[in-house]
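Reader question, answered in our methods column.
A reader sent in the components of a multi-part assembly and asked whether the whole thing could be modeled at once rather than chain by chain. We filled in our standard form and ran it. Here is what they sent:
COMPLEX SIZE: two components
ENTRIES:
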Amino acid sequence: MSLSEFLHMGGYAPYVWPSYGIAALVLWWNLWVPARRLRQVRARLRRRLRREEASR
Amino acid sequence: MMNFLHRLASPPHFYRISGRLLPWLGAAFALLLVAGLVGGLYLAPPDYQQGDSFRIMYIHVPSAWMSLFIYMVMAGAGLIVLVWRIKLAELVAVHSAPIGASFTFLALVTGSLWGKPMWGTWWVWDARLTSELILLFLYLGVIGLYNAIEDKRAAARAVAILALVGVVNIPIIHYSVVWWNTLHQGPTVTRFDKPAIATSMLIPLLIMALAFNLYYFIALLMRLRLALLEREAGARWVANLLAEEEA
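And here is the structure of the entire assembly that came back:
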C-alpha cells in the first residue's frame, strides 16, 4: 500500500482524518491547559516564597 | 493498606506520589496509543461493508465508552461526597467533568463524521444520539453549576446531587439501541456471546480503549495536582516542596 493510498482511506479521507484530527486536538488541549496553569501557579508561588525570604 | 490510603489522601503525599507516577503513565499511554493507531489505521483490514470509514470506530467507540465510564466515576465520587464529605472525592467529581465532556463531545462529533457517509446524514434525533447529547449537557451543567456557586464545598455538594440525578441517563444511553428502533447499530463488543467483530479489528479497539482510560487517569491527576496546589498555596508543605526543588 502506497502512502497516497493510505491517506486516501478508500475515499473516506474527508471523514476519517478529521475524526482523528479533532480527537488529537481535544485530547492535547485537555492536558495542555492544566499543565500550563500548573507552571504559572508554581512560578507565582516561587516568586512569593523568594520575596518572603528576602524580607525576613 | 488503610494506612497507605490515608497517607495518599493527604495533599503533600498525593502531590508527591502522583508526580512520580505521571511520567510512567504518560509513557504507557504513548505506547498504547501508537500500538492502537498502527493497528487501527494500518493493520486492520477495511470493513467489507463500510470500507475504510469504519476506522472512525477507533476514536468513536472508546470515546463513547469513556463518556459513560467517567460519568459513573463522577457520580460515584458524588455519592462519597454526600455521605462522607471527603475532600478528595469532591475534587475527583468536579475535575472529571471537563474530561468527560471532552469525550462526549468527541463521541458525538466522530459519530457525526461516521454517520454522514454511512447513513447519509450528520445527525438524527434518535434515542442513542439524543441521550448522548443529554449526557454532554449534564457534564456542562456540572461544570456551570460548580463555577456558579461561590462556596466551593457547597458547590461540590450541589454538583454531586446533579451528577447522581443524571445517572438515570446512563442505562438509557446503553440500552437505547435495544429499546428503540434506531439508526445506530446495536452493541458489537459487549454481548454475552462472541463479539460480532473480527479479532484483527477488535484488538486495536481494546488497545485504544485502554489508552483512553489511561488518558483519563493522567488528565485527572494533572487537574487534581493543580487544584491541590492552588487550594493549599499557603500551606507549609507547598513552601517546603518548592524550596526543595530549588536546592
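What stands out: The longest helix of chain B spans residues 11-43. The mean pLDDT of chain B is 89.
Send us your own complexes using the same form.
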